[in-house]
Design a protein that fits this description.
6-stranded antiparallel β-sheet; Jelly Rolls; Heme Oxygenase, Chain A; 3-stranded antiparallel β-sheet; about 50% helix
């Protein structure tokens, strides 16, 4: 019972580790990564995946009991498909990489330095830790997390409509419990009698699990940073390219009556429309909001900040817990990620010229027109101002 309780405590701590809150996993969970970004993620995983059998072999080298070593060898045999080339896990994984256009033949040549560091750090740790820690590192910190981790990946695969047969490697590992984690955890428990207390054994095992998940967190954070930087790479180039900027054929602010209708809602107490001007701005995104008498827009929040200039009418802008009365000539500011809405309290249309930085923030996950609109179906409605 003591052993069962202590193992369960390690399981619980693993499931509650901050690793599960890293940004890249949140993007996978929400289905926000594009196929190109998924491709980049797994291209950086090659250094680690190609070394996984080495990791298991290093665990084997740390074990004193030949029966324990035989159990790990059996795991390696299962990983190899038990002689069945078609079911070889490495083969299936390589097929996945090829299907998402990753050149497997390049191996680690396309890996960033942090990807190689992650793989090398895992190898170095398993070369020097105790037997119980080696089993905990792989058992709790690597194998046990696979079903939850791969289920998170699959959510994004489905979001980009990836065919199921392409990601069968991941589905197989979610659906089939091959017992690899249990084997390693059981072996770690067998080393309990070499410790002077259960608490010392648990502390050692947790140190190994925490190290495994922290290394992976740092690795995933680096990939996330690359993905975000890639989103703004072209924008950065444009900002720095003065000659290129001058040579572009820029469009100036259109007449409001010709501006594209971005969104319109007249359901319930919501009655308003938003137009987007057809300009050449790469960061700023000027918009025109029209709210009829008695109407209001949706209470919403988003990553872009906004400056409102009231052209005509009267109303109030609710920003967080503040209520700002506005009329013709008023200016109001809405920070990023603060819930807000605008109400018309006057006797005519409330018309607002809004400048946002959506041209920049749309490059990041969680900030699309669909993500913060109450009725995304009303985006880009074919309507006229006379309606």
């Amino acid at each position: 019972m003591v052993q069962t309780n202590n193992v369960q405590q390690l399981v619980d701590k693993t499931n509650e580790h901050s690793f599960w809150q890293v940004n890249i996993l949140k993007m996978f969970e929400a289905g926000k990564l594009s196929i190109d970004e998924i491709q980049y993620f797994f291209s950086q995983h090659i250094s680690y995946s190609k070394n996984f059998t080495k990791l298991l072999s290093l665990v084997t080298s740390r074990l004193d009991n030949p029966e324990h070593r035989a159990q790990i060898v059996e795991n390696l045999w299962e990983e190899a498909g038990e002689g069945d080339i078609e079911n070889n896990h490495a083969r299936m994984y390589n097929d996945f990489l090829k299907d998402i256009a990753i050149d497997v033949s390049l191996g680690q040549k396309d890996s960033r330095s942090y990807a190689k560091y992650y793989a090398d750090s895992c190898l170095k740790y398993l070369s020097n830790c105790s037997p119980a820690q080696a089993c905990a590192f792989i058992g709790f910190g690597t194998e046990m997390i696979v079903p939850r981790l791969y289920s998170t990946y699959i959510k994004n695969f489905k979001a980009v409509e990836m065919p199921e047969d392409i990601y069968k490697f991941f589905s197989l590992h979610v659906e089939c419990d091959d017992g690899h984690a249990d084997t390693l955890i059981d072996i770690a428990v067998d080393y309990l009698d070499q410790y002077d207390s259960v608490e010392r054994w648990q502390a050692d095992c947790w140190a190994a699990v925490d190290h495994a998940l922290t290394l992976r967190s740092e690795f995933y954070d680096n990939i996330y940073e690359d993905i975000i930087n890639n989103k703004v790479k072209n924008l950065n180039s444009e900002v720095l390219s003065i000659d290129g900027f001058k040579s572009r054929n820029h469009r100036c602010l259109d007449d409001v009556n010709e501006a594209q209708i971005l969104y319109k809602n007249s359901e319930g107490d919501k009655n308003f429309q938003v137009q987007r001007f057809n300009v050449s701005a790469s960061v700023l995104d000027p918009r025109y909001i029209r709210i009829p008498q008695g109407g209001r827009n949706e209470h919403h929040l988003h990553a872009h900040e906004s400056v409102f200039f009231v052209e005509r009418g009267e109303g109030k802008v609710i920003v967080g817990d503040k209520e700002i009365p506005v009329s013709a000539g008023s200016v109001a500011y809405v920070p990023r990620w603060v819930a807000h809405h605008t109400e018309n309290t006057g006797s005519e249309d409330l018309c607002i010229f809004a400048i946002t930085d959506y041209g920049y923030t749309k490059r990041f996950s969680g900030n699309t027109e669909e993500s913060y609109r109450e009725q995304p179906k009303n985006l880009g409605v074919a309507a006229t101002l006379s309606e």
